[in-house]
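The instructor's notes for this session suggest beginning with a concrete chain rather than abstract definitions. Hand out the sequence below and ask the class to guess, before any prediction is shown, which regions might be ordered.
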Amino acid sequence: MTWIARFLDYFLDRPWLVVWMGIFTTALVVLGILGQIHVQGDGAPTRFEIIALCICAGVWIAAKLFFRRDLTEEYLMGFLFGIQWEFLTEPYWTYLPDKFNVLVWKDIPLLMLPGWGCSFTLSLLLSNFLGRLFWKLDPLKLVFDWRVLLCDALAVSVVGILGEYSYGIWLGCWTYNMPFGLGNSPLGLGWEVHIGYIIVMFWYGTTFRVWKLKLEGALPVKKPSATPGSAP
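After discussion, reveal the predicted structure:
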C-alpha cells in the first residue's frame, strides 16, 4: 500500500492544492445541483423521503446526545463520496418514481446524497468497532494495515446489504441494471454491488483516516536513514 500512501501524501503535503481542488469541485457540484434539481409528481416529498431523511438526521443527533460524538466530518465526506458514486453509476440503477419526488439529476433522488453520508458513517463506525473487538487496534494508527481494510470490507458489506435489502428489495425503491453480467451472489445481489461497496469503502475509509491524521498532525513520519560516517 506504499503507492497509495505516496499518492495521498502528494496532496496532503500541499494543502493549498487540496483547498483549491475542494473549492473547484464543490463549486461544480453546487452549480450542477442547483441547475438540475427538479421535482416530479405533486412536487412534495414522499412519505418515504421524509422518513429516510429523519433516519439520517436521527443517527447524527443520537451520536451527539448519547455518545458525545460529533459525526459531522464523517457525514460530509460520505456525502461527497455519495455524490461521486451516484453520478458515476447512474446507468446501473433505476429509481422508481413512486418513491421519490425530489430529484437531483436524471432519476437520482436528492435523498440519496445524505443517505450515503449516513451509510458510510455507519460503515466506518462498525469497521472501527470490529478492529478494536478482534485485534484491539486503533484504525487511525494503522491506516493501511490489512486488518483495517478487512474490517472496512466486512462493515460496508453488512451495512450495504442491509440497505440494499431494506430499500432496494423489500421496499422496492430501485431496480438493478448490472453492467458486467457477473451474476448474483448467494445473497441474491449482483456481484457488482458487493465489489462496488468494498472498493468505495476502501477509498472512503482510507481517505478519511489519513485526512484526520493529517489534520491532527499525527501522520507517522519516516526518520531519515543515517548516512555513512554520521554521528549515531
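Then share the key points. The chain has one domain: 32-215. The CA atoms of residues 39 and 138 lie 44 Å apart.
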